[in-house]
Specification:
This protein is 40% helix and 19% strand. It is of the alpha/beta class. It has one domain (3-202): Spore Coat Polysaccharide Biosynthesis Protein SpsA, Chain A (Alpha-Beta Complex), CATH 3.90.550.10. Helix 9 packs antiparallel against helix 10.
Length: 248
């Protein structure tokens, strides 16, 4: 039997130097699935210089019953996720970051929504750090407004709709998720599911909560007022992650 006929959900995970996080996420995607045999996980690595790819390959050898594909791509989350989507065999795509855990039975919740004619949506989000501001930030993700959205909340979309609107815009090195979500809101009814994904607060821990939050606000404001992808990326490199590898 062609396994593509039985796959219900293709999970796409972009990675770049995620050796410390990817196995936890990979295991979580299968352990938290309601029907793990009906999903595939496509990890698209952007040229990691750490042990990310080695860790994934070793996990695959020990878990041959799980449907995992590791692809390689030039760095850039948009192009990595587009490559993953182009290799997906299910009719529904689920994009999630390498440091994020989905809610229990996430596949059932997503597929139920898609079967009810909701072609795109996300979950609410909570951080893995108990800080009052991060609790408020997570609480705000329950509202179905564009400015409450972000890639950290993960994203599901029917493959047909994803292809119809052209996928992620690869001009965006950052804010690629905001750009796609804007186009999804314009195209279809966007659903926010009440369960939480658990997102890592590691950048807040390493950069300082208020300093990083300020820069994220500036980036989102600049995106909303129409700054170019190049300007947004330059600001990010200058203020958020000066050691980020250059991405063309």
């Amino acid at each position: 039997m062609d396994q593509s006929n039985t796959l219900h959900l293709s999970v796409v995970v972009p990675t770049l130097n995620e050796a410390k996080n990817i196995i936890r996420t990979l295991e979580g995607l299968f352990m938290r699935a309601d029907q793990p045999k009906d999903i595939e996980v496509i990890i698209v690595d952007g040229g990691s210089s750490d042990q990310t790819q080695h860790a994934i390959n070793q996990w695959k050898k020990k878990n041959t019953q799980q449907n995992v594909t590791l692809l390689q791509s030039p760095a850039g989350r948009a192009r990595q996720m587009n490559l993953g989507a182009s290799n997906a065999r299910a009719n529904c795509l689920y994009f999630i970051h390498a440091d994020t855990l989905p809610p229990q039975n996430y596949d059932r919740y997503i597929l139920n929504q898609v079967n009810q004619a909701c072609q795109a949506g996300c979950f609410r989000m909570a951080f893995d750090l108990q800080h009052w501001w991060l609790k408020i930030a997570g609480w705000g993700t329950r509202f179905n407004w564009k400015f409450c959205r972000g890639g950290d909340q993960s994203l599901f979309v029917s493959k047909a709709l994803f292809e119809l609107i052209g996928g992620f815009d690869q001009e965006y090195i950052i804010c690629e998720d905001l750009n796609l979500i804007d186009r999804l809101y314009a195209q279809t009814r966007f659903c926010v599911l009440p369960q939480n994904v658990i997102s890592s607060a590691r950048k807040y821990k390493s950069r300082g909560l208020w300093q990083l939050q300020w820069h994220f606000w500036v980036i989102q404001y600049n995106y909303r007022r129409g700054q170019s992808p190049e300007q947004l990326w330059a600001y990010y490199q200058r203020n958020v992650s000066p050691n980020t590898p250059k991405i063309e």
